[in-house]
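chain below, 313 aa
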Amino acid sequence: MKKKSKISSFMKVKLYWMYFCSLSFLFFAGCKSEYSDTPTYGELTLSADETFQPLIDSEVKTFVGIYNYADIKVDYKPEVEAFSDLMNDSVRLIIAARKLNEEEEKQFEKWEIVPRVTKIAYDAVALIGSKGLKDSTITLEEIKYLLSGDVKNPYGKNIKVVFDNNNSSTINFLKQKTGVNELSKNCYALNSSSAVIDYVSKEKNSIGVIGVNWISDQDDTTNLRFLKSVKVLEVAVNDKADFFKPYQAYIAQKSYPLWREVYIISKEAYTGLGTGLTAFIASERGQRIVLKFGLVPATMPVRLVEIINEEIN
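prediction:
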């Protein structure tokens, strides 16, 4: 009788252990199905400011080339729409030229989510002109005259200013930089950055507003040449200051007045594919791609070299 009691107790322990293992398996299986991606595996859709498309296309292509089980789709759109996607929970990661504003930060606090904000590059807003443009320099005050339609602008009343779209981060940046609220009737929104380059290269008396990575000559390993189809204007704070083109050295030194920062903003609450992509772009390999596209890396040291020939472009 005692032996029968002993076997019965053993069987109970075994059954309890099997039951515990089954519950544990279901628990972890449930966790896996909730988060179906890892830093190098799965699917991710993100929204990015269209002004960074050449750079981000290259970063994503390189990443998925290394990690074959990663599938990343990038929707390029105006900055305003990218932030709208983030706040409406359409995406969990965006790439933009600003951080969260006060209202957006309060919303994250309501959600009880701590956003991950990673600076990945220093960018510049470039002004490009048609090849026959009479002048190649401009000050911040003159940019204000140009955007507002003031007759004091140095290029005359017939000059046209074009940018990628009505909600463009580049034109919004210039408006904030110069204090312009309303654009003049000589300012026109096109449908993309490539359309801006095409327009300025063909039309006389036109100036385009564009992100510098769109005009960097990818065949030039020194990043000291821009596209030959347009004229890149030199910019100064005022008429008593030095004028600079948006070369990487001048962006890094912040001598070029129209520099700005680029961020990845994530609401990913776990270590998923968005985290993996962010880590890659912030890594040495990802930052070398930033360097290739005429921007300045934000997470690695940059070696500056002296430009001997100022007539490079």
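The mean pLDDT is 86. The two ends are 99 Å apart (CA to CA).
thats it, cya
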